[in-house]
Amino acid sequence: MSKLVLDLHAIFKNGKAISQELGRVIDEANAKRIKMVEIIPGKGSGQLKRRVLRFLDQSHIRSRYHRFEVDEKNHGRIFVHFKH
User: pTM of the entire structure?
Assistant: First the structure.
């Protein structure tokens, strides 16, 4: 199964870049008909993870993917699943 990976560690302090990268990876997954995107906000304080979850919960974004899940074994990873 093909997937995209977005590691947010390098841009964790730049809110605009985070939103741009999240939007870009969702666009790319849809354009290339990729079934899953792995987003890595890291463990840290949880602020970045909450920001990613808020981004994914926006209605105009939520309509572009099927579902998401937080990795049970590593809470610093979020999997976004697509149905094409």
Answer: 0.92
